[in-house]
Amino acid sequence: MDQDLGLERCLTCGAPLLFVANHRWLDGGVTVQSLDLDHRMVLVETENLDLLFRKIEELLAIPIERIVIETKRRATRDYVLRITPPEVREGVRRLEIPVEPLIQANNAISVAMGYGKPKLESYKFQYQEDDHLTQVVNNPYSVPLWCGDMTGAVEAVTSRDNDVEYQVVGDDLVRIRVFPSEHPPQFQERLKTRRYPYQPVGYNLEPCPSCGGPQELAWFSWDPDEGIIVDRLSGRRLCMIGPAYLEAIFAEMERELGEEIPQTIVEAQRLFVKSGRLYSPDDIGTLEEFRRLLAVRGLGYLEEFRVGPEGLFLRMVNPALHLLLVGLLQGYYEVVSGVTSSTPHWSLKGPVLEVNVERD
């Protein structure tokens, strides 16, 4: 039992009890946070995140790191404001509540979510110019997303604008420092995040008899010393994130950089699959195995999936991160068929996504 991190494990499926307690797995392949049932969560490959951002930069020839950091900062700030009791925030502002227990509690959650292993280096919260929070993070799930997470959380608790800087200090090791600083006007407004329509379909995963989470959580392993989650089958690293906030980053890119961003995201994902670096055709397995995998990861309910010589069709209810899924499917079809495909067509109407990939 990893008592120092609050990561006591389920004796049956092996998942941290903190991870299970913080989430609910609903009918129809939807996962939400226990304290905020409108807040969807998904398990995604961590390597895909920063690689995706870099591939978008490469395709657009424009740096996007600051957009990613600032969007995630605003998203995390708004979320922490919703879940932190007003009396706690007021106690911090009055210097009546110590902040270190709050930092350490947040760090324990970060480890359970697969964000890496943070270590508190120094902090000062006295509402003075040299206030700061500095942490060294081992195995960060994404450097710009970690920067946004830390900055947004500090802002929510202290009610002060903050900025962030980071320094890579070793292999998979980064020092992140958050400090007071006013934001430019374009980064001051509240972030608009997507509300996912929900449709029950009568499909529920079997619960673990010990902890109540899905039995499929046994497909993953948690390493609290490294702060990572690993898919036992593929060996790839995962993390649990809010898809609405990742999609907010995509929307902010589209607003600032142009309407070609959705297709750029799809193309970047297609190239990942084609490279064989992140995904394999073996990941899909049987139709029911694929359905269960998508459901336990909170990505939605797979209603129909067909692959043939001339193309691929998918119909999904309650999808999340549909642009990444479209690119994944296009790349998957090209790998298994050995041919190129035309630009995929997709339709997202309410809670239903349909994707068509056709042979070129």
Q: Which features does this protein show?
A:
disordered N terminus, alpha+beta, globular, 360 residues, 10 helices, six-stranded antiparallel sheet, 14 strands, single chain
Description:
There is one protein chain. With 360 residues, the chain is α+β, with helices and mostly antiparallel strands. It contains 10 helices and 14 strands. It is 36% helix and 25% strand. The strands form 3 sheets. A 6-stranded antiparallel sheet has the order 1-2-3-10-9-8. A 4-stranded antiparallel sheet has the order 4-5-7-6, covered by helices on one side. Strands 11-12-14-13 form a 4-stranded antiparallel sheet. Helix 2 crosses helix 8, helix 3 packs across helix 6 and helix 3 packs across helix 7.
Task: Write a short abstract of this structure.
The chain has 360 residues and is an alpha+beta fold. It contains 10 helices and 14 strands.
Write the layout of secondary structure elements.
Elements: H1 17-21, E1 23-26, E2 30-33, E3 36-45, H2 47-60, H3 65-83, H4 86-93, H5 100-112, E4 117-124, E5 132-138, H6 143-158, E6 162-170, E7 173-180, E8 220-223, E9 228-231, E10 237-241, H7 243-257, H8 261-275, H9 287-296, E11 301-308, E12 311-317, H10 322-337, E13 345-349, E14 352-358
Antiparallel strand pairs: 1-2, 2-3, 3-10, 4-5, 5-7, 6-7, 8-9, 9-10, 11-12, 12-14, 13-14
Helix pairs in contact: 2-8, 3-6, 3-7, 8-10
Number of helices: 10
Mean pLDDT: 89
Strand-residue proportion: 25-35%
Classify the secondary structure makeup into a structural class.
alpha+beta
SSE order: HEEEHHHHEEHEEEEEHHHEEHEE
| Radius of gyration over C-alpha positions, nearest whole angstrom | 20 Å
| Shape verdict | globular
Helical content stands at 25-40%
